[in-house]
Amino acid sequence: MGRNYGIALIFVTPLALLMGQLGHEVAVGPLLFDRAAETAVGCVVAMLLLYATRVRARQSGR
Q: What is the CA angle 11-17-19, rounded to 5?
């Protein structure tokens, strides 16, 4: 499943982003920057949540 998810990230995500170009043309640079920024924010939020759950589990004695 992980391999299929990786393949989807590599091929399907750029395809979906480029299909948006069909309806309304946008410069590629800002589009890629926005996508990278959203991905970075998502990673930071996920890491903070993982850290918070780990600290909470230690405090509860698990």
A: 95
